[in-house]
Amino acid sequence: MSGPAFVYRWDVPTPLALAVDFGGTKVEAALVDADGRLVPDSRFRRPTGRTATVADLEASVGGVVRDAHAALPPGAEIVGVGIGCAGPIDRRLGLVSPLNVPDWRDYPLRDFIGSVVASLGLEVPVTLEMDGVAITMAEHWVGAAQGVDNVMGMVVSTGIGGGLIVGGRVITGPTGNAGHIGHVEVGEIVGENTFGNPSALEAIASGPHTVAWARSQGFTGSTGEELAAAYAAGDEVAVAAIARTGEAVGRAIASATALLDLELVAIGGGFSHSTPDLFTHMREVIEHHYFPFVRKVRIVPSGLSSEGPLIGAAALIHRAHLLPA
Fold first, then answer.
1. A Pfam family for this UniProt protein (predicted)?
2. FRET partner for 68 with CA separation of 20 to 30 A, picked from 15, 62, 94, 124?
3. How far apart are CA 248 and CA 250, in angstroms?
4. Closest CA to 36 of 146, 110, 157
């Protein structure tokens, strides 16, 4: 998120959330104020990854939390810690099992971060939700979904995830896993068998899976960036790959809208930026749906920059009233 520079007044108490975003390649932490703005120089990043051990992961998570805490300006106060994590999770027990981090299965992330902040002298609530929930709350708060109360946020990147706000309230389910739009089935389009189900949206339409399909059709590149460049140059396989992915995502959105009567879907993530035409293909699916109430859903790019996941994690504290008990 970009905007004019701002100056804090440290002569009055300033409530801040310590936001943590854990994903398959990195973990970040930052301090975020009650207006959804990151405190300057408080954002820190360390690696995670498929080959990381439990000790490696704990060192990275603990490190960014301590670094962000050390950036606390004089006169400011941390009022809570919000954690957005790749799923699946168990929000009741504070456990996480990120698909792309094999060494963490039912890992007690909430308790671990709680112990780190306690060692720093903080006695504040620590809230864990799936990263899709966090990013949807960020879009609703300061992004593309402001003023809209029936929203799905999506990330189309290395994986595909999402979160839901319906009737102005976050929908998470008992374990916190509602919104796994990447793992709904898309009929008549076959992807890779990554999850034992080649009809799963993520197996068809994530960045790596889109590239894999293109390679099966003769594309010689290996990254989403290379595929986007080939698309811009008019490469026929790249054009077909983008159209296929856009259709698959559009079908999933149509199904979610038919189920939940969504008004808006905000989509971010690295691969979503490959070309604006990706959104065109999604919207064409919606335009041809047989239900008028499905055709009304708007599909828009995220209104947030790379700060979005951290703003979303902070929203778990600053906008906790939207979460179920």
1. ROK
2. 94
3. 5
4. 146
